[in-house]
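User: quick one, fold this
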Amino acid sequence: MKNWKALIAAPVALSTVWSLSGNAVAAETVESVSVSDISADVVVAEPIQLAQVTNVSELSDVQPGDWAFTALQRLVEEYGCLEGYPDRTYRGNRALTRYEFAAGLNACLDVVIQLIGTDGLDEVRRLQEEFAAELATIRGRVDTLETDVAELEANQFSTTTKLRGQFDAHLVVPFGDALNNGNELITVTEDDPATVGVDESTFTDEADATFEYSANLNFDTSFTGEDLLRISLLAGDNGGSLANTESGLASADFSGDNDNVRLEDVFYAFPVGNRISAIIAANDVLTDDFVTSTIVPFDGPSVADAGGPEFYDQFEGGDFGAGINFAFSDNLVLDLGYSSAGSNSNTEDNGLFNNNSYIAQLNFLTDGILDAAITYIGAGDADADAAENTIAGLISLDFGGFVVGGHYANTDFNGGGDADSYMGGVSFPDFLGAGNEFGIYGGVSPDPDRDPVLVEAYYDVNVNEFFSFTPAIIYADNDSTGDDTENVYGAVRAQFRF
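Assistant:
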């Protein structure tokens, strides 16, 4: 059996050794020569007497962690093919001379001949002839592959950057008769106070269906494999019916851009040791850039932006931001973030340390049933009637077949007054198919003067990793003019990823 093992391995070993030698004379025309053809003027190095070793451990400079240790161990201990120098060193990182190559090749050939014998060599030749066509085919494929790889390397976009994109489209259909003054939809009632003092010619008798969309391109770059530089471009339409109601659409950040392309997000995240990571951000800094998790299960699949949760919007995104994440353990993580809305101006009330917001969130994350977080959001220079301080708690309970989650927040507003907001719901992962999700949630958004209500039922269908669509029924009540601002919407969200 050992002879046959050697017989099979012999051509591979010889071709490998030959390829190594061929690399040393790449792009040269190799001709057959004999020793007698070599000029006497060539200076021949002093002969090197190789040491006889039987175990790779006898070589002082070879360690078990070396990348070629296993291969060398087999050559020395099983075949006695390659030996060390008289001082019991192998010198594996030193360049190989042509003389040393010839000596090593000769030693390995002697071992091969001993193992397989003359009959074995004849069998090798027979196998080479029998599979000559197949070997030629493989060689041709390898040559073609090398050409293709060279072409890709010559024309590649970047060795460090990947392009990821996402396109969101929403079809929104309000149910029932409504008025639309360009700002909100309100249900028509007799003597509606919302129409007092308003030019009724600006209103329509019915709320029409709307189509809204956004396109996002992310250029993700990694220099070390553990860091991330993201540059994001965003374009979309002006938004429509649902975007103008409480909570809007999940991708409504594009509202008001009118298809103009803008620089949406720029940040660089990188590790600082094993348990600390940092992030530096510019241009439209968002809460999600700084917090480890938003906990609640409907953040993402939901169509309305309220699935977000909305109290995070009290963290005012700015032109500059910096954050850090401390992982005290695998389960306990502290997030800290800071943003400045006027960092690019040195005028009064602007600059790097004015017009700012900050966030702190302590996360308890497990692989089991419970995820929870406590959040504080503050604004150092809040405008009148703007949110000044927010304290919130989030929780998610995973029972296997379904997940229950939600949040509660209390917000103090500059100038007096506070507001409680909350959201709760249940989701069913892998509902009627792997990767799908059915969910329903509802609650009240933070507002000091009213209690806007939103309830949504959605079904997120992941067709594949590149496409998903989400039909939803949404009830919204802005509560700006009593009960006359409520409406029900049917919406379909289509998402393309590439």
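User: anything notable?
Assistant: The first strand starts at residue 161 and ends at 175.
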